Amino acid sequence: MTDNPTEGPRVADRTRARATRLSSWWWLPAAALVGAVAGGAYGQLRPPQYTATSSVVAVPNGGTEADCTDALGFAQAYGRVATQLAVLGDAQVWAGVPVSTLRESVEVATSPDAPMVAVSATSSKPAQAVDIANAVSRALITEAEHTRERTGIRLERLSRALKPTEPSSASTGLTSLVGASAGGLLGGLALLARPRRAGGDDEDEQSRASVPGPAGAADARGTLG
């Protein structure tokens, strides 16, 4: 059997190609580590946020034929107007903050099954979150009083906002985990988008394997002859 003189360079080329592919995978753990550090730093530097919630309930006032079904519908309507200027304009007086702050910090939720409106306020100060939530719910009750004779529905406070004891924002561990996941994802995308040689390594290996070496060609001619 005649040795193929090109076999050595082929093995070396395949070894270098495999080493290159393996060395490029360091992007994934490195990107995940950078993302985890960035997420942890964000969790440490960002002030903790506290959320307080106050609830009101819509009930028939007894002066009209409005019933519980009507109360449910009006509760949905009052939930939509809770963040409008007509309500926030009064709430800013009791909360002691501008309307822009109220719009940024207040979220309103309603239930499809109960005539209840939940007003949640988020702030870096627990006491301020309580004041904002109670002020908006109070302003919403006042707004409903202006139309109770026509609608037959009034709003009553169901529960006052209580001072939160724990932050509602994400913990440092969670932000680190999210950062690591995002970093790993970006690292994987960068790895997939990296430039490749035209045709790819596999095609080069197949093309080289399909062409017989000089010794192999000579043996083939001898067999045919």
Mean pLDDT score: 75
Number of strands: 4
Low-pLDDT runs of 5+ residues are 199-211, 216-225
Helix amount: 55-70%
What spatial form do the alpha-carbon principal axes imply?
Answer: elongated
Number of helices: 9
Following the backbone from N to C, one meets helices and strands in this order, namely HHEHHHEEHEHHH
Structural class: alpha+beta
Rg computed from alpha carbons, rounded to a whole number of angstroms = 35 Å
Strand order in the sheet with the most strands: 2-3-1-4
CA-to-CA gap between the ends? Answer: 18 Å
Strand content: 5-15%
Biggest sheet overview = 4 strands, antiparallel
Provide the fold topology.
Elements: H1 7-23, H2 27-45, E1 50-60, H3 68-81, H4 85-95, H5 99-105, E2 106-110, E3 116-123, H6 126-151, E4 153-159, H7 172-192, H8 200-210, H9 214-224
Antiparallel strand pairs: 1-3, 1-4, 2-3
Helix pairs in contact: 2-7, 4-6
Give a brief description.
The protein is an alpha+beta fold and 225 residues long. Helices cover 61% and strands 14% of the residues.
What this model shows, in words?
With 225 residues, the protein is of the alpha+beta class. The chain is 61% helix and 14% strand. The chain has 9 helices and 4 strands, in the order ααβαααββαβααα. The protein has helices at residues 7-23, 27-45, 68-81, 85-95, 99-105, 126-151, 172-192, 200-210, 214-224; strands at 50-60, 106-110, 116-123, 153-159. The protein has a 4-stranded antiparallel β-sheet with strand order 2-3-1-4. Helix 2 runs antiparallel to helix 7. The longest helix is centred in the middle third of the chain and has 26 residues, at 126-151. The protein is elongated, with a radius of gyration of 35 Å. The two termini are 18 Å apart. Mean pLDDT is 75; it is low at 199-211 and 216-225.
